[in-house]
Each structure stands twice: as structure tokens, then as C-alpha cells.
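Researcher: I'm preparing a figure for a lab meeting and need a structural model of a single chain. I don't have an experimental structure, so a prediction will have to do for now. The sequence is pasted below. Please return the structure as C-alpha cells so I can convert it later.
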Amino acid sequence: RAGEQSGTLEACFKRLHKYYDKSAKTKAKIVSTLTYPAMVLVVAAIVFTIIMVVAVPAFTSAFAELGTELPAVTKWLMGASAFLTKWWWLILAIAALLVIGYLAFKQTERGKIAIAEFALQRAPLRRLHSMQAAGQFASAMATMLAAGLPVTSALGVVSQVVDNYVFALGIRKTKEGVERGRGIAESMAEVSYFPKMLTEMVGVGENSGSLEETLDVVGDYFDNEASIITERLLSVMEPIITAVLAVIVVGLLLAVYLPMFSLYGSL
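Model: Understood. Here is the structure written out cell by cell.
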């Protein structure tokens, strides 16, 4: 609509293509890199469940017939297996209630704010979430300005595009400040959720009259930073998953074989 009214429809389509193409490629890259760790965790959880529910009860009865003192790790594994076998329905019910409660809380205004604030300020990956939100803001704002929208209208649209709820509320607060005659950067400075660099670069672009170009550069910077952080986290995640699985396997083997070694020693 903005491109049609301003006579720059072709340029607007090009900008929209660039924006959606970059967003889709970023999401696809994250999904593809997360696929392998996710599959490994799912398979490991299934195998562990089968071992605890099927395999462990089988050798529990065999060890009970031996009448020997069992190692602590074997006792723990047998107790965990007995608990899972007896109370699996309770575990599933609690998990379902937690998921339903979280989804219901997420739909409330208080829940949206609490979850979004946690992601930006207290979560272990808060820097990544902040970078992604800032990149979304800069890219979407540059696209809206290139389409010929006024600043206030562009801010209104961008507040509906950004995924993080409190970040979107900050953009709406910035829009209210601009409507009162204040500058964009001046209004953004009052919102603590905006990265300092984003606010300062918006001020530079605003003062130099090149806000659209500045937002393009800033959007690419934040997107690249988010991509680098994601790649580093994923590169660390794979060896951590491997190490955790190795510890679980070693624990299972010790729980099974230690009683056998004790029995052979007594014989």
C-alpha cells in the first residue's frame, strides 16, 4: 500500500524480497543446525526409557535371586526403574499440566511480559535474543521507510513484526515519543531493552539524514552477530551432548556389570 501510494511499488517489492529472503534463510539455517542435536536427544530419551522400563526390571529379578549386596549405583538404577514403571502415568500427567499451564500463562498479558523480559534480561542466551530482536527491528524499519511510510506508521508496523513482546512494547513507547515531537533515538534511549549500539546508530542515521541506510547496516550487523553466536553455541552443544550420553551409558554399564563382577569374585 505504501509503495503504491508513493509511486515506488517496484522498489518496495525488491526491499520486501530482500527482507523476507534474509529472514527465511536465517530461520532455515538455525532449524537445520538444530536438527541433528534434537534427533540425538530424542533417540537417546527413547532408548533410555526402554532400558529403564524393559531391560532394568529383567535383571532386577535376577540380581534379587543372587542374595548379594548390590553396589549403590545398581540400587539407584533399580529404584529409578521401579519408580518409572509404577508412576509413569503420574510423570506424564505432571508434564502435561506443566505444558498446559505454561501455554495458558503465555497467553496472558503478564505472562507475555514475564517471558519476554526473562529472554532479554535473565536467560542464559539473553544476548542472542537481544541481537535477534534488534536485527528484526532494524531490517523491518529500513524496509518500511524505503516503502515511503512515515516514521510513526513504520514504528507501528515494526512493533507488530518483532517477536519479543517487551521489545515490541518498547517500540510502541518510542512511537508515542515521536508523536509528541521527540526524536527517534531520544525516545529509544528511555527503553532499557534496546541495545545501546542500536539506539546510538539510529541517532547517527537520524542526524545525518541517512536513517534507512544506517538501519540496513545495523540490521546486517545484528543478524551476523546472532548467526555467529548460534553457530558457536551449536558447535559446543554437540560435544556436550556426546559427553552427557557417554556418562549415562557408563552409569548403566556399571550398574549392570558391577554386581556380576562381585558375584564372580565371591565364587
